[in-house]
Amino acid sequence: MKNKILFLALSILVLFSCKNKTEIKTLNSTSNEEEYGEVHQKEEQHWTYEGETGPEHWVEIEKQSDCDKIRQSPINIIDVDAVVDTSLNPINIFYSSDVKIHDVTNNGHSIQYNFEKGDYITLDDEKYELKQIHFHEASEHTINGVRYPLEMHLVHVSRDNKIAVLGVMAIEGKSSEPFTFLENYLPVKSGETKPINSTFDLNLNLPDNKEYYTYGGSLTTPPCTESVSWYVFKTPITVSLNQVKQLQELMPLNNYRNEQPLNGRIVKHYIPH
């Protein structure tokens, strides 16, 4: 009888001990999963155009970036404050009518068309190859406080990795045939790349009047790299309301960075002779 009572007591003790170990293991597993989840969320955090990952927080997210430095873009260009510089030259633009667009991609921030080698500009006798064009809606630069419905950026890079960007404003008006050509390859879902391999004459998306403003600034998206030469055309091109809306449906709403302080920089103004 005593042996039966002793066996029963030991069995209860063993069961109780196993139950406690299981509960402790479960608690530890939950804690580890929660901790991993927090780390995983932090690793996946990426910059956007709104909220806690918007432009005001880019420097926190992109810790090795230039986003908090003093020569940032975009800016508000005030015409009367821009210095007319007669020593400036026209931008020598060498865009062929038959250079191929390699592909179009939606990187989650903008629609971007990537070009094969062939189109380029020269600045002070230095060659800058056209790498890609992309769009911001509404415009990033403002002129006399006016924000245009759309701004196209044409990004060029020299052999020694200097960056020059042409900024082209667009207003709503007559439909643009070149834009119609580009939009034939849309829609592209976020994260998707679609091959094009068709020729395109980018000259048709430039204003006839090549008057421009120029200043030293940065890329307008992280890592906000400085030492970028900006050339913003004063005269906008026209696109239809439907063309603006089609881009708007594919890109984040208001994918523009707000005006950055000049911090003593001078905006120069080129007026064709």
Order of helices and strands: HHEEEEEEEEEEEHEEEEHE
Mean pLDDT: 86
Q: What's the N-to-C terminus distance? A: 116 Å
Instruction: Count the beta strands.
Output: 16
- Determine the structural class based on helices, strands and strand pairing: alpha+beta
The amount of helix comes to 10-25%
> In the residues, how many domains can be counted?
1
Unreliable segments (pLDDT under 50, ≥5 consecutive)?
A: 1-44
Describe the structure.
The protein is α+β, with helices and mostly antiparallel strands and 273 residues long. It has one domain: Alpha carbonic anhydrase (Carbonic Anhydrase II, Roll), CATH 3.10.200.10. The chain is 23% helix and 32% strand. It is built from four helices and 16 strands. Strands 2, 3, 4, 5, 6, 7, 10, 11, 12, 13, 14, 15 and 16 form a 13-stranded mixed beta sheet that branches. A hairpin with a 4-residue loop joins strand 10 and strand 11. The longest helix has 43 residues. It is globular, with a radius of gyration of 28 Å. The N terminus is likely disordered.
